[in-house]
Amino acid sequence: MHRPTFFINLTKTASMCLLAGTTLFFTGCQKGEEIFDEFLGKDKDKDMGEMRIFASTNTGGNFTIFDVSDLHDIDKTVANTGNMDADGIFYSQDKDIVYQLSRTESVVNGYTDIMDLMGKKDVSPAFSSDSDFTNGREITVEGDMLVVAEDVDDMNQLVVYKVYHGALRLDKVYRVHINLWGIQLVDGTLYAVEDGTNNLAVYHDFGTKPDDQNLGADMKVAIEGLVRTHGLNYDAMHDIMVLTDIADATVDSDGGFHVIENFSSKLMDAGDEGMIMMDDQIRIAGDMTYLGNPVDVALSVEAKKIYVAERANGGGRLLVFDYPMESGNMKPVANVNYEGASAVYLDEKEMD
């Protein structure tokens, strides 16, 4: 997942973004190269500043910060938490807080003053939520709202917390009718993958509905060519959606990821219960990719890179790919062993 910089309300506009006071329209035929050129302009080769991946593991008892500013020299810092099974992770740059979902304790932990913690071998949370879920997966944060995707047979839930004064307070619980995994909240709209399928569910005005009720998706679309999705990352500024495909969970070499440019217009064109066709996507898969069970993903248009948490191949990896311009079998530009990789979050800090 990637830190969003600007949000679009899909109920109001399909493919418009604002950048530095200028209105840009990404048309339905606009491709990746045009998006990069229009966004980066004359500075497209400039130093992008510090780029870090915050990563979770469900076997290692830590979270790890990978400095991916220079892919030829990836440095990492490990914070040992003692939570042997962790999943969703989010870093608040403004507050210098890492939120990490502990499946070991069924809580969300908050770790403050991260830069100070990095000099320590073992770290402890500054605060934690109550244990309001039993099988948490991804988390997403927007403003003062933190949402947990809970994937439990016959009781899938979206558990909503309010973030305030260095604490997490349970706010609402919504029951949903799909098996959950990856989620992302963007400008009040929640995107959620339906585990076990190739479907993407969309919930508008999320969090405004009453507590403790069944929550139906406002839209659900299928993604042609995708077998079983897990991770997602939507960059609203550039209107690009990336979804991962774990395919057969028992196989460590059949995974992939899909890139959908001009996503909002393609979503609307597909309509509820429709399908986004393969011709409207880019799919990366094959024996060169090291993709088997890619469980989470982050996108940087600025760096022209896609970052993947690969759980199965080699026991776990952080994989970095160049942004693809066409479908195919693509070798990653960086491949770092990370046992039990379960989640990634990209933090980008611009040069002063």
TrEMBL record:
SUPFAM superfamilies, per the entry: YWTD domain
Protein name: Uncharacterized protein
Gene source species: Roseihalotalea indica
